Structure formats: C-alpha cells, structure tokens
Amino acid sequence: MFRYYIWLALRSLRRNPMLTALMVAAIGLGIGASMTTLSLFRAMSGDPIPQKSAQLFTPLIDNWGPDQREKNGEPGQDMLTYTDAVALMNLHAARRQAAMYATGFAVMPTDPTQNPFQADARATGADFFAMFDVPFKYGTPWSAADDEARADVVVLGRKLNDKLFGGANSVGKTVNLDNHDYRVVGVLDDWSPQPRMYDVMDQTFGEVEALFLPFNTAIGRQMDIWGNNNCAGPTVVDPGFEGHMRSECTWVQFWAELNTAEQVQHYRTLLDGYAAEQQHNGRFHWAPLTRLYDVRKWFDVQHVVPDESRVMVVVSFGFLFVCLVNAVGLMLAKFMTRASEIGVRRAIGANRRAVFTQCLVETGVIGLAGGLVGLALTAVGLAGMRALLSKDMADLTHLDLIDVLVTVALAVLAAMLAGLYPTWRATQVQPAWQLKAN
Amino acid sequence: MHFGPILSAMRRNKVGAFLIALQMALTLAILCNALFIIRQRVVMMARPSGVDEANTFSLSNQWVGSPEQIGAMIRGDLAALRGMPGVVDAYATNAYPLRGGGWSEGIGLAPNQKHSSAHTARYFTDDHALNALGAHLIAGRNFTADEIRERSERDKAQPGVMIVTKAVGEKLFPDGSALGKTVYVEDQPIVIVGIVDMLKTPWVSNAWAEKFVENSMLDPYIFISKQYSYIVRAQPGQLDAVMQAAQKKLFEVNRNRVIEKVRSYAQIRADAYRNDRALAIILGTVSAALLAVTAFGIVGLTSFWVTQRRRQIGVRRALGATRRAILAYFQTENSIIAGVGALLGMALAVGLNLWMVQALEMQRLDLLYVLCGAVAVMLLGQFAVLWPALRAASTPPALATRAS
Lengths: 438, 404
Fold this sequence. Notes:
The complex is a heterodimer.
Chain A: H1 2-15, H2 17-44, E1 56-61, H3 82-91, E2 96-108, E3 117-124, H4 127-131, E4 136-139, H5 144-149, E5 153-156, H6 158-165, E6 174-177, E7 180-188, E8 211-214, H7 215-220, H8 240-246, E9 253-257, H9 261-280, E10 290-294, H10 295-302, H11 307-337, H12 339-347, H13 352-388, H14 401-427, H15 431-437
Parallel strand pairs in A: 3-8, 5-7
Antiparallel strand pairs in A: 1-9, 1-10, 2-3, 2-6, 2-9, 4-7, 5-8, 6-7
Helix pairs in contact in A: 1-13, 2-11, 2-13, 2-14, 11-14, 12-15, 13-14
Chain B: H1 3-11, H2 14-46, E1 56-63, H3 70-82, E2 87-93, E3 103-107, E4 118-124, H4 129-133, E5 137-140, E6 149-152, E7 160-165, H5 166-172, E8 182-185, E9 188-196, H6 207-210, E10 216-219, E11 221-224, E12 227-234, H7 239-253, E13 257-264, H8 265-272, H9 274-308, H10 310-318, H11 323-360, H12 367-393
Parallel strand pairs in B: 4-10, 6-11, 7-9
Antiparallel strand pairs in B: 1-12, 1-13, 2-12, 3-4, 5-9, 7-10, 8-9
Helix pairs in contact in B: 2-9, 2-11, 2-12, 3-7, 9-12, 11-12
C-alpha cells in the first residue's frame, strides 16, 4: 500500500508542477538557510573533547581585588599570574596539569637560500598532550624531566614537519629556532580542536600552534608573550621580563585533569587554601575568590559562540517558519483541488485513515524533495560562509554526516507537520457531497 | 468598493486568509529586524579610521634571534623606507588602527587612581607618525625628533609628552581643552602636547571596545621588540609598487628577519570588519529569499482562489462587473489581509527585537523601520496579487453559461 501511495503522490505532484515547485522551493530554501546557520552554530558550540570535557578544569584566582571584578562579582581575570601558575604546579594536586602561554619563533629553514619564516608556538608542560588526548604521528611528548631541566626539545605540528622535513619521521633531528637548536621528540598527527579549548582567549577558533616546547624552556629564554596579557588593577610592574614574571599581570593559562568529584572538591579546597594563604601573607587584601571551571562551563563564561551566530540562527529559523506557513497554504490549496478525487476514493470504500495516510505520504515526498534541495542549498550556503568568514572559521563550515541526516529529517518532519492541517481537511471531505456536485 | 462580499468570501476561506496574514506578519517581523541589524553594521563598516587608507599599508617585522641593537636597526630600516621613491613617510609601531590586537591603557587625572578616567588604545609612535598615517593635528604640536625615546614592552619609562585624539581629550576634560594638561599613565605624569581629530583603536568590531573606539593615545617611543609593525604611506597611485619595493628594500638592509602580514589598508579594513560584513550579507540573502517566498506564496494561493472561483467571477462578469472591478476585488481582498498581517507583524517585530535586546545585546529597533517595513509588505502583497488578479479579470463572462 505504501508503495502505491508513493506512486500516487508522485503522480499528483506531477499534475500540478507549478504548485509542487513552489512548495519544494519554499521548504528547500527554508531548510537551506536554517541548516547553513545551524551547522555553523553547532560547530562553534561543539565540544572538542567530549570524552574528557567534564574532567579538565581551568582555575582562576582573584589577585586584583574587588575593584577589578565583573559587575556580577565574578573575577576579572581569565588567566593566572606566573607566580600563581607555578605555585599551583608545585601543589601537584591533579593527576595531570600544565601551565602554558602562547609565544613564537622565527624558524631557520634547512635550505640556507630560503628566508626564515614565522611559527607560533605554545610553551606548556609535558602533561599537556596526554591531558588533551593529542594524537602523535611520530615519537612522544617530552618528559617531566625535560620540563625540569629546561631542555631544548620541541614537538612539531604536522604541517611544520611537512614543511621542514617533507613529512618524514623527524624525531631526533634538530630544528633551528631563533638561532638555537632544538631536538624534535615528537610530531603530531592532524589535530584541530574547535574551539581551541586550552586557550580560547587568544584565538577561539582556527589552527593550533605550529609547534610546542616546554614551559620552563620558554621562560628560561624569556620568550615574548604572543597571547593576551592583562595588567589590570593597581599593580606595580618592575621593568624587564623578570619584573613581569613577578608582577600581578595575568598571562598564563592553566589546566588540570581531575577525574572524580572528590578530586574536584579537594582541588577547590586547595585553591581556596592557597588564596587564603596569600591573604594571610599580605599579598591579597580581600577574602579568597577562586573559580574552577570545566571545559563546557569555561566556554560559557568566555562566550565562545558569538552573538552574531545566534542572530543568524534565530533569523534563519524564523525564515524556515515562514516557509512552512507558506507550504501549509499551498498544500491546503492542493488537497482541496482534489476533493472530488478523494470523494471517489471514500465512496468506493477507503476509510478516513487511508486518505490520511495517502495525504501524509504525499507531504512526506514533498518534504524529502525539499530536503534534497535544502541539502544542496546548505552546501552552497556553507561555501558562501567559507568565502565570507575569516580563515580561522574555515574548519567550521563543513557538512558532517549528522548535518546531512538532520537536514533531510528536519525537512520531511517539517513538511509533514505543515501537511497535518491540510491532510485533516482532506479527510473531512464528504463523499456524497462531492459525487453530487460532479 | 463594497467590502461586504469580500469579507463574506473571506469568511468562507478563513484558514487561507489567516495563513497569508500570518506569513506577511512574520515576514515583516523578520525583515525589520534583519534590515535594522544590516544597517547598523553597514554604518559601522563605513566609519573612517582616521588613516589615509587609500595610500597606506602595514607590514609586520620579526627579527631572527635576539639582536642587541634593535633600536638602531629600526632607525636604519626607517631611514631606508623614508628614502624610497614614492614613499611619503614611515614609522614603526606596536599597533595601528583596525589592526585587531593592541595595547589598551587607562589614563588617570591623578596618580594611583582606582579606576582610570579614560580607556585608550596605546600606540608607540615617533615624529613621523602623524604624517605617515595622514592624521590631522587640530591643536598643539607634533613630537620633535629629540623627544623620541626607546622603550621595550616590559620597560618603565619617563615619557613626559603625548598626543591624544579629540575623543580622549573630551572624555578627560569635558569642560575645556586637554591641551597642555598633565595626566597620568602607569602613574607617571605626562603632558598632552597635541590633539588629533580622530584615530580609531585597533579593535573596531567588538562590543567591549565599542565604548572607546576613538580613544587613542600616541607615545613618543620607538618600540624595542623582536616583533612590531611598520606603517608606510605612499604617494597617491603608488601603493602597490611601494608595497612590493619596501619588502625588497628591507631584505637588502638586513636579511635576518621575517616579514609577514603585508596588508594595504583596504585589506586591513576588510579583515577588521569581516564578520560584520558576513552577517550583513547573510541576513540580506535570507531577507531577499524571505520576500521571494512570501511573494510566491501569495501568488500561489491567490491563483488557487481564482481557479476555485472562476465560475463566480464569470457570473459577476455576466451580470455586468467590469474587468477593473474584478481586479479591484482581489486587490482589496489582499489589502485587507495584508493590513491585518502588517498590524500583527509590527507587534511581532517589536517583540522579536525586545527579545534580541535582552538575550543578544542588540540595540532597540527604530520604529521608523517597523513603519517602512509595514508599507513594504503591503506593497509586496499588491505586487504579488497582480498577476492572479489580472488572470481573474480576464475571465470571460461566457463561462457563467457553461456547465462546469
């Protein structure tokens, strides 16, 4: 019976191609616009590390005092001072932990005729890689001993390894960065968390750094801070990099892996204890204010999904709704022209349920066609987005399988929903009346 | 025109009329809000930066290793750049208008203030900066060559003098001129020696920076850093040539560097406003599609009604109604539906805006947009109904005499 209804639906749609085209186009346009903006929104608000996002935490310590807090009383900082980051590292209170900051190098190519080029880098601890499930193509992370010893070792991102070594296994080789030799201990496989969870302040979306080196090595070389650096508050900053390290400026991101609720609770207690100690020592003149956010909560606090993206989703779903209202009207018109045909079917024995199913199948077919048009338009829309948005966002404008399924399912569902009233009206056709009128 | 028959016909087709009215109302609500947002962004994107954008470009310079004499190297580069044919002037800086990243700094009226009196963007510049940017000094004087000091990012310095934008002056001293006044930056006293009419901050498309988008201060410092930018202004028409030649020239002076982000101001502007432009274009596209869908929806449904009522129309024509009367019938019918839709839509538009103000930090909708939107939607309805109405008007009176 179902196949017969499909056949009937196709016949009926062919009979009035103008109305059919209008309905399919309306649903297709609405679906295309809303899925384009929705898939971008979904990508922006995604969880780059779902298996662990509830176990990775970033701590904040208010070291500036009440004057610099947000209006809602939350701490004004989104990073730590060097002093506090080192103190937290020395607590060794988490299973894994890493302090980090953004910096960069001028890379000397192996071919001396080539010009040096720029590579951004992340100075961080050995635990970083295990903590964020970073995939390695060759080699391993450096060791905790390398962290301690300020070893001249690096982990290369895949792209930089391609550029410098043609993609070969470069573990054990040296690279020259700003006139110093560093030994390659590992090469990453493709890794592109979106958002870049470990540092959304400097750059929320886009590529991860080209290479990684031990935090202490970068500090020892006094490597420039390429990321955010916030010296709010009445802080005295002594001259030079060492003065900056001692200052109340915040510029270090810090992440800790805490696997159980008890560990989290324990860590919170330690944080408060540390802040209380700072108050006791006379560094803070206020009661301790600390925060410990997991990845998802941190994204909320940092507002990683821009309002623009929300506006686009709201407007395009409003548009989809208009398209559906439109489709309701057109389907109503279509089913009403068929009143006599339905009358005949009813007269020769079809019950209301059969008529209902038949009309619903027809709306489903319209929805499916609209969904396919919508899918094509979504692909076009995302290509348009790619051209309009910055390169950082390019990774966010791809259709994944879920997007495709959601698009088609949404279209069919929307069309059937829109078809409910017209379908109900069709079942109300009085067979006798229709036959008489003819 | 008699409304009675129209209304009674509509009563027999309540759902159809309601659907068109609802569609027009939603179209109006979305359209007003979308156009309002588009206009805001377009106005924002059109704002001048204070820079002679047509003839100016920037490039980022990064030294290899940790050279000792960066100050001397910068002076050498600048002498080379300024000596190039086609170059008006050049200077080195930490940041520039529309760059995207920079140094924000509070200015106080007294040392050790709890909260600064004006929030500004801080630019390290020299006595050539105003000329290289094409900025206009409206009071006071430029820096002199002997006032220029070297300063690294992590240094303390005794600055002495600075130039601010008019906006900073008005923020600090609303009742009088800021010229010659002493203010405090990093708790050090500084005299304002010059005022330029306008220079934007590096952050131009961001809610946080919008509050101080014209607050810039210029310090007489050469920025001693491994990485900084050169701003170069070319003679009119020579920008492209100078952009190429400048990179070659710098590598001739010293090869041990990385030159990145060589951007004309057109490019800098495009980068700075990329997301605003994207939002405006996307909303514009959706709005156009919305209008098309609504218009075709009206065409479709009205055509259906015309087909349905062909016999009645034929009877009316046979009884003496003119083509114009038939045309007017459908036009009036659409006006009534559109009028109801427009009223509903105006309320929806304001409601949607109020929600966006609350949830998404949008601005309040200008009511003029709602009125213009209502007129536009009514016109759209008239336009869409024209074709089916003309078809209805051409119904031959003889149709009434035929059986079916």
